[in-house]
TrEMBL record, chains A, B, C:
Keywords: Membrane, Transmembrane, Transmembrane helix
Name the record gives this protein: Sodium-dependent bicarbonate transport family permease
Transmembrane segments: 6-30, 42-62, 74-92, 104-125, 137-158, 277-295, 340-362
UniProt key word Transcription: no
Organism ancestry: Bacteria, Bacillati, Cyanobacteriota, Cyanophyceae, Oscillatoriophycideae
Source organism, top-level taxon: Bacteria
Signal sequence region: none
Amino acid sequence: MDFLSGFFTGFLGQLQSPTLGFLIGGMIVAACNSQLQIPDAVYKFIVFMLLIKVGLSGGIAIRNANLAEMLLPAAFAVAVGLIIVFIGRYTLAKLPNVKVVDAIATAGLFGAVSGSTLAAALTLLEEQGIEYEAWAAALYPFMDIPALVGAIVLASIYTRKQRESFKEEFPSKQPVAAGDYAGEDNYPTTRQEYLNMQHGGASKKVEIWPIVKESLQGSALSALLLGLALGLLTRPESVYESFFNPLFRGLLSILMLVMGMEATARLGELRKVAQWYAVYAFIAPLLHGFIAFGFGMIAHALTGFSLGGVVILSVIAASSSDISGPPTLRAGIPSANPSAYIGASTAVGTPVAIAIGIPLYIGLAQAFMGG
Amino acid sequence: MDFLSGFFTGFLGQLQSPTLGFLIGGMIVAACNSQLQIPDAVYKFIVFMLLIKVGLSGGIAIRNANLAEMLLPAAFAVAVGLIIVFIGRYTLAKLPNVKVVDAIATAGLFGAVSGSTLAAALTLLEEQGIEYEAWAAALYPFMDIPALVGAIVLASIYTRKQRESFKEEFPSKQPVAAGDYAGEDNYPTTRQEYLNMQHGGASKKVEIWPIVKESLQGSALSALLLGLALGLLTRPESVYESFFNPLFRGLLSILMLVMGMEATARLGELRKVAQWYAVYAFIAPLLHGFIAFGFGMIAHALTGFSLGGVVILSVIAASSSDISGPPTLRAGIPSANPSAYIGASTAVGTPVAIAIGIPLYIGLAQAFMGG
Amino acid sequence: MDFLSGFFTGFLGQLQSPTLGFLIGGMIVAACNSQLQIPDAVYKFIVFMLLIKVGLSGGIAIRNANLAEMLLPAAFAVAVGLIIVFIGRYTLAKLPNVKVVDAIATAGLFGAVSGSTLAAALTLLEEQGIEYEAWAAALYPFMDIPALVGAIVLASIYTRKQRESFKEEFPSKQPVAAGDYAGEDNYPTTRQEYLNMQHGGASKKVEIWPIVKESLQGSALSALLLGLALGLLTRPESVYESFFNPLFRGLLSILMLVMGMEATARLGELRKVAQWYAVYAFIAPLLHGFIAFGFGMIAHALTGFSLGGVVILSVIAASSSDISGPPTLRAGIPSANPSAYIGASTAVGTPVAIAIGIPLYIGLAQAFMGG
């Protein structure tokens, strides 16, 4: 029962973290009918600040990494990030009453990486004396950013298809496109409705590339990729260390507050499907970690990628982001219900990844070492 | 004449402090017809940031305090905070030509606590070798927050009553309710007009609880209480230390600038009543301190609350806030004239509390020790 | 070829600096038709924060300086700052196809001072063992602020004159006045058009003082002068060190991003005149430095101002600001094209000042010492 106690300690710690505290605070504020509001202009700027920071830190990490040596593991990280999103798209999103955009956003969050889970794994590896490449931790942006971009693009494609078929039937209404900031979009997007619409018409082909392009031009991915490019190509360390990084946690807490205020209104949507999210959030981290472990072992066989590095790749895949994910998904898939993806990640996914995933992959690596 | 020189040194120091400097700067900018403006969205966010921080620091202080041991002094602190507001309501607000909302806001500010006055008292107590409980300084939020909440609720009740009677006579106009951010409300609220209206009609009962509830739901108290709850129930120290606390002084200086810009236009309103504010600001700190001293002595007799602690309770009561008060009152009682309450506090109240109040209560405590 | 390699090292370093990185990033984002935007309210507040900081740091520097001793050099610094603006007004602005407001803004930027260029000069002076007065570096606000104020006033006068003559011919349209924040003003202001208009009518006198007054009341100069006054007359060090200064670099990078996004659309305007800006940006720093060197030698002869101080005055004149200049000019002369003045300064002016100017003035001073 050691991991159960570890699980609950992790769970309680999460509940008291400022991130979740502000989220729940926002929910209570909204439930009390408070008039508290964060002005829209400030909110948009906060999202911009968060996304630029996520991009910058990824870009700086990649620039400082040894790209030649880490080529294969990095490519595998990209692949795993995208695979995770597709798994969510074709499992969670297909469950009854689960809204497709909520499921895609959740999959994106589970594909993105949690820095604190990664830090826990590094600490444990060192305690166990398992060696790993110094650059292995820098693999995280190679999984984090493709997963988030992939989820946003997938959601855009889905929303566009819906819009096309919706237009044919109800030409006057105009649902909001994914890829823009904010906007309250209560557009009905359960799988059932989707199926109904498919019947109604619109099984015609939607072109993918214009949607990808439009997603990348949206304010969310623009900010993320701008930060990435600046981190890669210029020397923004001074401004990153003195401005974007120190403000990050605080601005994130305010974002969480806003998301909490919105979540209250949409919590009811989840009543019928909460069990599916719980199941997904329990299984997905472990499954994602095993997939990454498999890819890692291929790199181990081909290029001598260390077993410690394989564990790190697995933990990166098993973790779900409470940092880069929420702002990116909130801005990139505004129609998705934040209660769904944040709830699944913080309440179940992260404790599972830390308490079950990390010991599991380390044990597995040690078994291979002995073998 | 030692305390006179102390008084003037304190007074001059106050004038050069950034807080007052930005207030006067704002007044001059407005007097020069400058087009300088702080955008409304940013202003609202700044007020939110300040109120959350005030709440968080209060909540953290209470959480870290030994509640069982400090129960009676804490209850007395709450009582004194509310008594101070009622004293202002039934003295200053009744003076000729003094606007009732201005008087209530001023009383709220004098009930709130100044951290720097408190720090000065602690230094002196240590120099004199007077012992006090380690948690005594943590009594401040128990007086600070009830005084501010009390003032806002009292102002809401008054404004609502006015609105009711006003409606009966002039059904078309709609004064702004207290409890909302901002809004220029030049609604005539002198005692004289109030009395006239009372004659005109509307002595019927106004229900209190809906107004209290509405005040608590207003953006000002929501933010304050949200911060308090987060400070009490979660562990927001990391985000408090890295974000809300370091930004506080700077954001406060910008709030002061905005308040100064508004003050210019409303300085004229005070010409006829400035003497009443001066008298109040001189007497009130000393009176409040004596009341708290009395309550403190009761706790001393009943539970052995130290005499040093009694001094601290008195100084907390004597001090008037230049930190938590202005943003809370500006947002919670938008129709009150900031020149009135900030002028009374910084120009007279704070120097009196520091130069006369602190030595007085220490001398009194030493007299009791000797006795 | 030593200075050529120094020139190119400086040039490449500039390209990777966060300041220029964000500018180019903004240009690329806009070129990709991204929907990324900084909300207007936040943008205005960022400009305010930057200008207050520039003013505060100038005011604090002047307050801490020995005014009596530095009187003559300070007066000369003011004179050189204004002369630089007038030189630009009557050389660059008279070149074919160069827009007058762009030229005035560029001259203002070249009159303003770069802290990093100044720091480079101080380092070199100390390496060479050349003595200078401790207050010499505090001369910078005496040149910086008059140059920026002068440029904004000159641009206002020009724009007003244009408006007057424009009104006579086309009474309905209303170009935006300089001195206000933002506003897209594509009002045609090439010298040619100006001459055409002069022909058309309106050679009547425009009154100067109302325009100066209006410029000073504009939000840009109000914020700058408010900061200056607060720095001079109060003790804002605590709030400056904890708030305005640490946020400066980060907020500047966001301003640069916005300016880059705007620049893309207006880069085409510069195609025909880029060579004039290149010529100006190469010659002007050296010329400005020589003028200041002459003034410095007068002070050397009259009051014994040190030769090291003369070098510092020259470097202050030769440098062009990448810190105080862009936000001030963007807000004060909104119709000027940022690509013109920032491009001229960062791409050519600053490398020339550092790689050619500093060694030149030090060599000159050493020649006088030997003589």
